[in-house]
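Q: What would this complex look like in 3D?
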Amino acid sequence: MRRSLVVAAVVPAVFAAHVAVASASCTVGGHYYDGWHKNQTVADGGKLNAKITFNSGTYYGSANQTYIVAWDGVSGGAYWLQAGINYDPVYGRVLYIEYNNSSGHSFVSEGPITVGSPYTAIVQKVSAGVWDAVAGQHAIDNIAVTGMTGSDFNAESESGTTTCNAMNFDFASVAPWDIYQFDYDSQDGPYRISNITTYGWTSSGP
Amino acid sequence: MAAALPARLRLAATLLAAVLAIALLAACGSSSADHPTRRVTRFVNLGLAVPSGWHLRRLQYRCGRAGLGLLIGDLSASRLNRIRHDFSGLPFGACTTSWNVSSLPADYVLVDITELQAPDALPVSEFPLSLNAFAPSRLPCHCSFRNGSVVTGNVDYDVRIWIGKRASSSDRQRLQDFLASIRPASA
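A: Here is my prediction, written as structure tokens for the whole assembly.
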């Protein structure tokens, strides 16, 4: 078992160059596009599977709880699991697996990504309350998250400050695509979904 | 003999003063226990009152959706600061808000409040909070454990509560009082 105290140290200096000067005014909160299905029962072995490409993204504001992220995952309210691409001042642009359960919240960086390249993101139910997650070539097995009742493919920008972030992700090979609906929060728009196809879409903004 | 009497009186007076002082201190101590002095503090957009004898530890996570954290309990400051995160089952490169409480004494009470933006919208909390607002859950901690969410003003918090098997009724009451003291703070 590998362990680490990780992390935060590497950070601000390396990615300071990516932090842009604020030019827009946003309220605190999440801003996203998402294809979702709520109140869903997933059979053992059932999974969400997408190819996610990070095209571009820019920070505005401080490092605290600021991120741009695209993922697929499941949730049951306070407990959730997701896998995808994360871009924040601490880790930079990385594949990640993240979850919250009764023990607490955990975030696992699975290494840097290349802008413009598609990466696999999968969450798969093993049995009741047990899930596997895959980000790129990396996997975490048997993650305990109970009570999952909904699933998402989601691209979001979380400011956590008074300024908003920019993002451009492409989702492809989204499966199972047909059971999902679009939802979005445009409180800090203009965000938009484009290039909707049978297999995915592009989220961008602001 | 005439000189010895004042000396005895002085000794008696000193003893009486000492007894009175001890009695006064004991009385003050009792009063303090009945009406503990609480320290009011702020955490993100919450106000809360730290019970007398409890300590708190503030954290700044750089960990995905986790932001600021607060660990609070009836432990000494040094004991509280020695509690480490639990990386069991996590690979290299992970960060976590999970705590390893295995070394704590059996009479502890511990509360973790972490700013954690949930991917789904959670129901807004009603105040005052009580222990029953948090669901019991099983953890290998030789304790009673509860957890849940608190949501107010667009900020989501993940809350976890550990009650050691030998926590006193007084500590349990202070825990209830602490939870009831948590309120949305004015900007």
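A: To summarize the key features: Residues 70 and 155 of chain A are 4 Å apart (CA to CA). The first strand of chain A starts at residue 19 and ends at 20.
Q: Very helpful, thank you.
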